[in-house]
Structure formats: C-alpha cells, structure tokens
Amino acid sequence: MLLNTMIELKKLHGLSYKDISERSGVSIGTVQKVFGGITSPRAKTLDELSKAFVGLELPNMVAEQTMYSSGTSAIKNNDSSVNPFEKWIPGKQNGDYTIKDYESLPEDVRAELIDGKLFKMEAPSNIHQTIILELALQLKTVIKKRKGSCKVFISPSDVELDEDEPTIVQPDLYIVCNKDMSKDSKRTHGAPDFVAEVVSLSTRIKDKRLKHFKYANAGVREYWIIDPYHESITTYNFEDDDIVSIYSFDDVVPLAIYNGTIKVDFSEIKSELLGTFGTLS
Questions:
Q1: In which domain, by residue range, is 44 found?
Q2: pLDDT digit string (tens) for 166-209?
C-alpha cells in the first residue's frame, strides 16, 4: 500500500500514531517520522505499516479495484464479462492476448498489453498532457545542455519491457540511456532507466500497483507517480533498496538516476497549470 493511501485512511478513520504502531508493530517513533514527513520509508517499512490498514478502504477503492480486475479502465459498468476487444480480436479471453494481437488493433484504439491482458486507454486530459509536456521540457533542456546521451520520450510510445512476456506499455514519460534499446523506430525494447506516470481516476490502481510491480521487476531504475489530485509526486528508487520519497507540487524533485544533479521544479509546473486551468486537477 502506498503511503499517500495510508495517510488518507489515517485521516478518514481517525487513527492515531499509537493506533498505527500497535496495529503494525512498527515503533511509534518511526510512525511519527514517516507520517510527519520527516523521513522517507523503505519498502519493508511500508509493507509493515500497511498491516495497520488491513480491512480499511477509501470510498473510491472498491470501485477502482473492481474496474482494475475487469481488465480495462474503459469499462464503466464494472462488468468483467464485457470484453471491449472482442470485436477486433474474436475468440480470445482478455488475459490470453499476444503481442501479435496487440499489433492487430486499429490505429485509433490506444491500449496497453500487460501479461496478456489488454487495458484500453482513454484520451488524457489537458492537465495531464500539460504536466507531461512541462516535465519533458525541463528534462530535455537540462540533458541537452549537458550534452547527455539519454533520450526523453513521451506517450504514446510503445515500450516492450521484457521480450519473454506479452507486455507492451505506454508510459507517460520515460528516459532511455542505452541507445540500442531505442534503435527500433517502432518501439523501445527493454526497461527504461526512468519512468513517470501521471495518475488519473481511471488509471490510479494500474499505475500505483500493477505498473509499479512490472517496472520494478523489469529493471526500471527509477519510477515517479505524479498525482495532481493529491498534489504529490511519489518517487521510487529501485536501485537503492526501493527508497520511497514524497514531494509536493511546490518542491524541486531530484532524479536519482542522475544522483540528484538533475532536478525538476514542480512549482513551475504548478504555476503553468494554475495560470492555464485555475486548478491542478
């Protein structure tokens, strides 16, 4: 469970630091530091803290989990028996699809293939696209200024994470430092060094759970989850014992793959969003 979710559950259910400590077995001192934003918890600590919230749910968690289990974020009625890909790929269950099946979809149908399951992707909002474009601009500018060899890509751009698995994803933004991985003009082959996803109400579960797991196991070095609804950026440094850090849209966020020497000023992105839309979400 992500720390942001635990913070929301803590507020919703009125749990004290003592309650969380007793339910999880984590010392009250550590609980205070983690929930007070004084320290960034490691993955093991997050797992232990999550025990305190077993059986507790946010109002939208059940609907999101049902939507996720259906195999597509586009199924609004949460009916897992409905397969929107049947009309293009008849005779298969969603979970048995191959890369060849994925490639047979019409060009105007945007989807991701994860472990043989197709997830239909809705058109991103203007806020979503502004965040990604501003992020890409900052990153590309500083990398180019340093004459770096890493390349910045934005969606829609296919990434085949592992050639042994039927998985092709379209990260919102990713960085590749190995030139051989992006030689194919059709798609990137292998795990990017850096991935950023901007969550929406329809992709929250997929981005925070399924894709987090896939990226970590495929060899992605660093993963950012940008959540405009909670005005937060959660970063995962998979190279350094899965260290988790949480930032706000007022912070300057360092990239671990550059040892913190390259940073993204989210206050500039926030200013652009407020100036254009009057809101962050």
A1: 3-53
A2: 899 999 999 999 988 988 889 999 999 999 999 987 787 788 88
* Number of domains into which the chain is organized: 3
Tell me, what's the pLDDT at 40? 65
Q: What is the mean pLDDT of residues 231-250?
A: 89
Both 15 and 66 in a single domain? no
CATH number, domain at 237? 3.90.1570.10
Torsion of the alpha carbons at 139, 141, 144 and 150, rounded to the nearest 10: 20
> With bands split at pLDDT 50, 70 and 90, how would you rate the model's confidence at 99?
very high
Same domain, 78 and 168: no
Cα–Cα distances in angstroms (integers) from residue 87 to residues 34, 105, 239, 241, in the given order: 48, 10, 42, 44
Burial of 141 (0-12, 13-18, 19+ CB in 10 A): exposed
Which secondary-structure segment (H or E) carries 222?
strand 222-227
The three-point CA angle 222-224-230 to 5° equals 160
